[in-house]
Write a structure and sequence with these properties.
Chain lengths: 401, 470
């Protein structure tokens, strides 16, 4: 595969071919003109150690062009009247004002260099819009089989007042692919948005993803995020709680084997009173896999009566695996209940012994324990099908290890 | 509040805030230069190797950037600090009667000679840049225990000091303030406990800054040979001034096989002091290191006592209390490196913030590959007393070995209204009720301290809270 670098002409052509409105073209060009001046995504640094080396991601982000195929399936969903589920490119044409309003409303492209490259080069995407009071019962389920050398995908999910929607997206395939993914989720007053992501790209691919939601009053934004593939992933899943009485659940799971490196950041910022968050991540690391986890609960001055909890558990099944973790609390309001907990350890000898006493052989016992380890992450959020796929994937990964 | 309590509290304030007129027999000009460093070294009549180390540290200091990851240090102007001030020709006396009256009076007010008689195995007292009094009770001196200031140790135990002083425990390249310390250190303690000797009573060193705008840079070097056992207590205070003082101490502890060292600190610097310390212990197999730290005073504290568990079965315990009132930023924590199998660490941190104060727990636990059977637990609890205060918790864990048992927990919250209401319904006034809740919050830690220090810490907490609740 010959690799073609992104340049200003490529960005210009991309925009021309689509006959994009001027504001979108300007956004691309401005982002491309600024990325070099923007900082790289934040990575934890402790004395003598940087948790993740972003260089390879950095090189690939602008070293590869997207190609032209629309390979996302599941967009033609059967949805109630007024609900829009469309390819984002088409939505720019058919629902320009709606897209314009929501793009950059939660994640801003000038936060870091990789987001800027994304804003310049994005092509594929999903747009979901649910009007006031509409509840979409069936989850919107998309699957993307990536064949390109790079893919820059943007998803926007907007739920107006008292609307409800669940979106689950999978991404698979890849061949030394760079996958850049931005997800913006905007929940209006009383709205509920559930967003699930399953990433199972090839182990020689790279992922940069930033997912963020915002809530109106009494709204919910919930996440489940599963990280299985890629050589290197830099991921952020986050919620800004802007409206009083809102809540968020931020669940995650990862399974690293070989020499995979996952840098996973989750955070919640409480800007409003009477709000809650529950952040929960579980992971298993085998071989020489590494996870760098950063979880932050931030409670700002106006946010009183906040309940916020965060847990990360990692199971290390190989001696060479490495788990780094930094669960943080940043609390500016005293009228809160916040806690976090993190554990790291290996499979309990007693559990193995017990299984052995029941006639389960050692390899089987390990598989059962590892597969069972993820179960607490499941069942709380409305993603039964996605969770079943997670289970299958975990099982598959166990088989091939 | 009863008149009696009020009087007691006034007396407490006088204890810490008492200031003597500044006097000196040698005072460096403000700021740092090679010339000033040479002068300090000459004044102390040091061997060449020590001067070389000072100058090398100074080069590191100039090269290193200011830390940008912690509390703001922009008000800290090292160029205007007086690095060395010798108040009197009298140094290292072993009889309080030989200490000049004004200085002795200061330590009397702080209760040092009294504590020495009652509960301590030895006492050192540093005033400004030099140790004015140092004494070890005969029963341990006879067993070969050494407790002296660093200058005396260089004269009498040159090889030991040369081998251990800022070489492989805290090298001057460690950080900006370790480098600063290495260039202009003065005073402090040298403690040597021979193999198998237990010092049954704690040894205490007290550090007092009296003058405005000065910096104190004492060095503590503790060597506990195999099977030795010692508890070292450090206290510190200064009167309040409008100009900033700086304290950049350095503590190096070598814990031998199966030896045990407890290092306790009750820090009560005045609220114009930048307190930027580097403390580290290296522990051999079966050894135990305990760091007990109460950080009450200072404007800004950056303190993360660190332990390298180098031998199999070595263990570490950190107990940290941070209390931040108005204008204070108390950034404390713990660092533990598990470098050998079956090592264990326990970190407990309790932070209290009020009146706009800011506390931060910042900790790092590392487990090296091959360090099997490591157990580590980190517990951080923060209590915020009002809406103006801030509390952050920032632990970092780096685990490179699967055979570990690592747990971290943290909580942040406010005093429960119900607790206060209940106590008030029992006829206890609100401010007293608050104090009771806070004392209860830190009790799991104060009970680890010797009684005198637990009482002292509780009094300091009361004093702090009294100021705000009036």
């Amino acid at each position: 595969m010959s690799v073609q670098e992104i340049d200003a002409d490529f960005i210009q052509d991309l925009s021309d071919e689509r006959d994009e409105p001027d504001w979108l073209r300007q956004r691309r060009l401005k982002a491309w003109g600024s990325y070099e001046d923007l900082p790289a995504p934040n990575v934890i640094q402790t004395p003598g150690k940087r948790w993740t080396d972003l260089e390879e991601l950095d090189v690939r982000s602008r070293g590869r062009r997207t190609d032209q195929r629309k390979t996302r399936t599941g967009i033609e969903a059967d949805v109630p009247d007024g609900v829009i589920v469309a390819d984002l490119e088409d939505a720019v044409r058919d629902h320009e004002e709606l897209v314009r309003e929501s793009l950059d409303s939660v994640v801003r492209w000038d936060e870091n260099s990789l987001l800027a490259v994304h804003a310049a080069a994005w092509r594929s995407g999903l747009f979901v819009y649910v009007p006031e009071g509409v509840e979409v019962d069936e989850p919107i389920r998309t699957t993307t089989e990536v064949e390109e050398e790079a893919r820059f995908s943007t998803t926007l999910v907007v739920a107006e007042e008292n609307a409800t929607v669940t979106v689950a997206e999978s991404v698979e395939g890849g061949d030394e692919t760079y996958f850049s993914n931005v997800v913006e989720v905007v929940a209006g007053d009383g709205a509920e948005i559930n967003y699930g992501a399953l990433q199972n790209l090839s182990d020689d691919s790279y992922q940069f993803t930033s997912k963020r939601g915002s809530t109106g009053r009494d709204a919910s934004v919930n996440w489940i995020d599963g990280c299985f593939g890629t050589a290197l992933t830099k991921s952020t899943v986050s919620t800004v709680i802007e409206g009083e009485g809102s809540d968020t659940r931020n669940y995650g799971l990862f399974f690293g084997t070989g020499s995979q490196h996952f840098d996973l950041e989750t955070w919640t910022r409480h800007d409003a009173p009477n709000t809650t968050c529950d952040m929960f991540t579980r992971g298993v690391l085998d071989d020489r896999a590494v996870s760098a986890y950063e979880g932050t609960i931030n409670v700002t001055k106006p946010a009183y009566e906040v309940d916020a909890y965060q847990t990360e558990n990692v199971l290390l099944v190989s001696e060479k695996a490495e788990a780094d973790a930094s669960p943080r609390l940043e609390i500016d309001n005293h009228n809160v209940k916040c806690s976090h907990a993190a554990t790291m350890g290996r499979i309990d000898d007693e559990e193995m012994f017990y299984m052995g006493s029941r006639g389960v052989d050692e390899e089987e016992a390990r598989s059962l324990i590892i597969e069972g380890y993820f179960e607490p992450v499941f069942g709380e959020l409305p993603f039964p099908e996605l969770e079943e796929e997670f289970r299958e994937l975990i099982h598959e990964k166990m088989e091939t290890r | 509040m009863s008149t009696e309590t009020k009087e007691w509290k006034e007396a407490q304030k006088e204890r810490f805030d008492h200031r003597n007129p500044e006097r000196s027999v040698h005072k460096s000009p403000e700021g740092l230069s090679e010339e000033v460093i040479r002068e300090i070294s000459e004044e102390k009549d040091e061997p060449d190797w020590m001067l070389e180390r000072r100058l090398k540290s100074f080069r590191h200091f100039k090269d290193k950037p200011m830390p940008d990851w912690g509390p703001s240090l922009h008000e800290l102007d090292i160029g205007s600090i007086v690095p060395y001030l010798k108040a009197d020709e009298t140094t290292g006396e072993d009889d309080w009667d030989d200490v000049p009256d004004d200085i002795k009076d200061t330590f009397d007010k702080l209760g040092i000679p009294e504590a020495e008689q009652e509960a301590l195995g030895g006492v050192g007292a540093q005033y400004e840049s030099e140790v004015v009094y140092q004494n070890m009770k005969d029963q341990w001196e006879e067993k070969g225990v050494v407790f002296s200031d660093i200058d005396t140790a260089i004269e009498e135990h040159e090889e030991l000091v040369k081998e251990h002083f800022m070489t492989n425990c805290v090298p001057p390249s460690d950080n900006k303030f370790a480098a600063l310390h290495g260039a202009i250190h003065s005073g402090g303690s040298f403690v040597y406990i021979p193999e198998g000797v237990t010092v049954e009573m704690p040894i205490q060193a007290y550090f007092r800054m009296n003058s405005e705008g000065m910096g104190q840079f004492e060095h503590t070097l503790i060597i506990a040979e195999d099977g030795a056992d010692v508890h070292y207590i450090e206290g510190c205070s200064a009167p309040m001034y409008s100009r900033h003082n700086v304290h950049a101490g350095c503590v190096e502890v070598f814990v031998g096989e199966d030896a045990s060292v407890q290092y306790s600190t009750v820090q009560n610097w005045s609220k114009n002091t930048f307190n930027l310390n580097t403390k580290r212990a290296k522990v051999k197999s079966g050894g135990t290191m305990d760091w007990i730290s109460g950080s009450m005073g200072s404007k800004t504290t950056m303190l993360y006592p660190s332990t390298h568990l180098e031998g199999e079965g070595a263990s570490d315990r950190h107990i940290t209390i941070g209390f931040a009132g108005e204008g204070q930023n108390i950034d404390t924590g713990a660092k533990v490196s598990h470098l050998a199998p079956n090592t264990s660490s326990t970190i407990e941190s309790k932070s209290i913030s009020m009146d706009g104060g800011r506390t931060n727990y910042r900790g790092l636990v590392r487990v090296s590959p091959g360090a099997k059977g490591v157990k580590s637990s980190v517990d951080c609890d923060a209590l915020m007393l009002d809406e103006d205060s801030i509390s952050d918790t920032m632990p970092y864990e780096e685990i490179k070995e699967s055979d570990v048992d690592m747990a971290h927990e943290a909580t942040v919250g406010s005093i429960g209204d119900e607790d206060i209401f209940y106590l008030q319904s029992r006829g206890i006034e609100e401010d007293e009720a608050m104090q009771m809740v806070v004392s209860g919050f830190i009790e799991p830690l104060t009970e680890e301290l010797p009684l005198e220090y637990a009482v002292e810490l509780n009094r300091l907490v009361e004093l702090e809270m009294e100021g705000s609740l009036g």
